[in-house]
């Protein structure tokens, strides 16, 4: 099982110094930290609606995490209007089993909402984290996402992914395909303004400012990038034949992509801005679907050089090509975990069902993450490597789902009318706490 280290801050001998006690999620004694998130305190008139949205979002975020479990508010002995805003009655929170407590105050400021979050350690009765945010009224959920990211960082030393977004391709009723972007939890869906032709295979730039995609807008599968702020589209690769499967290098300077300009699909490396590509593979069979290792030194990809598609790894100069999957006969869509210890991929089993597996690139050990729930395909790791987005048709329609990196806690996050393909999880707002 994937390991998750988190840090528990304790006061030592009544002083303000803190010790770090590390635990791992696969420790049999590990249990998520029970946390109480109270209703928002309305610090000005008209703040109720925003407060409800903020708290619902925060509770959902913490339940998504591997660190916390959000306690049922029905068990609370105190309500927001009965407990002092800055002086919680800690005995009441101990009695309901809370180890942590979050209190939130909300203020209306013209067209904006300001929210102040306070996290308390119940055992030590100390305020451990305080953050204040101000956002437009239609963007209040982002404040909860940002605080949840900070709270995860307090315990793990690594920001959460609650402020991230997921892009995916989807077909509409007229069978046109476009690119959509949504929050990590499936909310705030937005369609990108692209040419009304076939648009496929979204992939994020390292900074999150651009999305690469393949489009038939010029009657050839060319590679483009859209600047999400300006919505301007630029051409990245328009070689003869296929230009697809862009994946950004960890430093953001280069992309690996698939080109078929020489007759069959091969992996190439080029600047993120486009330019003259360098060929990395040279086989009679198809090579496709590149994915960088987190250190930028290797690329996982799919090759059919042995007759069936399997997952391979090579250096970024095309050297040391080696096969890492030796089970199954149809393996595809690799995505290298940001933690470096696994490559997730789609495989077809003996019943011609598609499911998601991982392979350890060092040992070639394979683990199955989905089974007996329709077809499950196209994994994409969250930027912290703790979650995987994927497409499943288990409900009768292709929808975007998310699961823990070990395959547990599978949840549908998009349940609209679109038929979804190729989710791509975007980068974090911040990478590491200061």
Overview of the molecule:
With 434 residues, the chain is mainly beta. It is built from three helices and 32 strands. Strands 3, 4, 5, 6, 7 and 8 form a six-stranded mixed β-sheet that branches. The chain has a four-stranded antiparallel β-sheet with strand order 11-10-9-32, with no helix packed on it. A four-stranded antiparallel β-sheet has the order 12-13-14-15, with no helix packed on it. Helix 1 (48-64) runs parallel beside helix 3. The longest helix has 17 residues, at 48-64.
Properties at a glance:
434 residues, mainly beta, Rossmann fold, Neuraminidase, 2 domains, six-stranded mixed β-sheet, four-stranded antiparallel β-sheet, globular, disordered N terminus
CATH class placement of the largest domain: Mainly Beta
Largest sheet: 6 strands, mixed
| E-strand count | 32
CATH topology of the largest domain: Neuraminidase
As residue ranges, the low-confidence spans are: 1-23
- CATH-level-2 architecture of the largest domain: 6 Propeller
**Roughly how much helix do the residues carry, as a percent range?**
under 10%
| Rg of Cα set | 23 Å
Q: What fraction of residues sit in β-strands?
A: 35-45%
Distance between the termini: 29 Å
CATH superfamily of the largest domain: TolB, C-terminal domain
